[in-house]
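This week, study the protein below.
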Amino acid sequence: MTLQQLKYFIETVNSGSISKAAERLFVAQPSLSNALKDLENEIGVELLNRTPRGVSLTTDGAEFLGYARQVAEQAGLLEQRYLHKKPSRRLCSISAQHYAFAVNAFVNMVKKSGAEEYEFTLRETRTHEIIEDVKTLRSELGILYMNHFNRKVIEKLLRDSGLAFHPLFTAKPHIFVSAANPLAAKEFVTPQDLEEYPCLSFEQGEYNSFYFSEEILSTAFCKKSIRVSDRATIFNLMIGLNGYTISTGILSADLNGDGITAVPLMVEDYMEVGWIAHDPVQLTKLALMYIDELRRVVAEYGVKING
């Protein structure tokens, strides 16, 4: 087993296909394919599922990737220290539901990484796609929530995907509304207060099940309902149509300005927000840094961190 084989394997996983990895590594595709096969034969374990659409990790491959990343990181530090090589290009990918605090933490992580070159990815996407991204290691971490309604379904999907959920904090539901909305002046609102206002939610595409909704009370009937695909649009509709959405209550004035406010929603429910990752995979330093920034950002809003 060589360091070059490990780097080839890591780049193939990051690229999602052998052909794309070969382009990035400036090697011939047959040479890369043979190197990966030699690695698998040497350790006696199949690391990659190969399909016409690309590659994905086997269960053993997911575990192996964690060790390979650690070895490559340590080798990079040795090269910097003793061979005076410049730091390697830093990589980190996160998939998340549409939370401003997740973006805040990402910004902080990028600034503190100190990387001269990097390729970071933040995907604000649908619930099922978050799980699929982390399952296939397209993303190292995913950010989503669970409550009493969706917990059994989400936990089963995570188990079947070899993923684990790590609670970050538990939030009482709030509505997000325009500061000019009459509801913004209330100390709290009830579901009855919301009946005449447009309910805004994030559409979930092919997997538009109530269990994958980013908002609680997804099964409740709404006279006026609008689904959107991104956070900027949902904020625009709060202002333009006096709409509301249900979320954690954590808003970022730095990213969203002062035009949106959070009001407690009086319901017997909760949102347990956490991060998901492969159970056997060791997280990279950047991923661990991102988790630390998540905790710090959330704590700044006075929310109690779990664990």
Observations:
- The chain is about 40% helix and 20% strand.
- The first strand starts at residue 48 and ends at 51.
- The mean pLDDT is 89.
- Residues 3-167+273-300 form a domain with the Arc Repressor Mutant, subunit A fold (CATH 1.10.10.10).
